[in-house]
Amino acid sequence: MNPKVKKVLFALTFLPYAAVLFISLMCAVFGIDFFFSTAYGLDGFLLGLLFSALVMVAFVPVIPVCVVFHVLYLLRKIVPFIRKISTKTFAVICVIMCTIAAAIPLIHTYL
Predict the structure, then answer these.
(1) Dist CA 7 CA 83 (whole Å)
(2) Are 87 and 76 in contact, with CB atoms under 8 Å apart?
(3) What is the pTM (predicted TM-score) of this model?
(4) Going residue by residue through the chain (111 aa), what tens digit of pLDDT does each one get?
(5) HSE-up (13 A, CA, CB side) for residue 53
(6) Which of these, 13, 24, 57, 64, could form a disulfide with 48 (CB 3.0-4.6 Å)?
């Protein structure tokens, strides 16, 4: 895999965090309905942060996959014996670990 592709993929995995912050800011400005009232400002921001993070962790497990990818990418950069693993083998390990990270919240949520 091209090193530029890995860097771009690493940068793209920060988009879910930016989406959570953007949704939270939108909720702070435009409000969010919660228990028969509308919360604005800091309360709306915190509720938007909580709900959007909950959705991206439990219902659509994007954030756990991104966290696992970040850890594996940084381990590949730092730890010398992991660097010696071939790229294809490391990609398979990364896919397996990300699949496990996606499956655990889904199993916990729906079972």
Answers:
(1) 15
(2) no
(3) 0.82
(4) 677 887 888 889 999 999 999 999 999 999 888 888 888 899 899 999 999 999 998 888 999 999 998 998 888 889 888 888 888 898 899 899 999 999 998 888 887
(5) 9
(6) 24
